[in-house]
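HOLO CASE FILE
Compound: zinc ion
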Amino acid sequence: MMMVDVKAELCRLGREMLARNLTTGSGGNLSVYDRRQDRVYITPSGLAYMALTADDIVVCDGRGAVVEGARRPSSELGFHLALYHHREDIGAVVHTHSVFATTLACMHREIPPVHYLVGFAGPKVPLAPYATFGTPALARAITDTIGASNAILLANHGLVAIGANLSAAFDVAEEIELVARIYYQTLVAGEPRLLSESQMTEVLEKFKGYGQKT
Ligand SMILES: [Zn+2]
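Model generated. Tokens follow.
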């Protein structure tokens, strides 16, 4: 993807987060890592997605030094970088405060396999212990807990979704919010009936081959 396209895509999916009720105002943040060039493209701190243009996207090197852009990067740049350094398969990070995922995170609950779509993340969505936003302690809590998952809840904070690219990470954020909502509703209405480990193993196996074959 061309550099300009990456910036435009970050703006577009930022607005898409609003449109799909995954965040409000300027909440949450998104980034893409170009591993070959060692460049992180990230949304700026505190700017409303509706007003965001490609020029507002901040470009940093892999250590977080700004190399392009007049804005300050998202206050969560630290955990985005930590994730890119922690796992080589990660090409994009989407962080939301989507309501149902965040509700569970505020109850210090993981998301168990209550619906097969949890497989977008893995056999479950783990929960990172609470740490103040924007701190190295939060970055450490995330990398210590995420394992091989494509999503993680942050206690009393929100959700982080990752993927090989931005649209994959966005899909994870959206699907896990759906599963979080379903899980919450089953807890409110009665007793969730969970999928077994072997049923989830089968789902994860099928997910590997899912989608359009080219
Ligand atoms: Zn946040």
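CASE NOTES: The longest helix spans residues 166-189. Residues 28, 95, 97, 133, 157-158 surround zinc ion (CB under 6 Å).
CLOSED: yes
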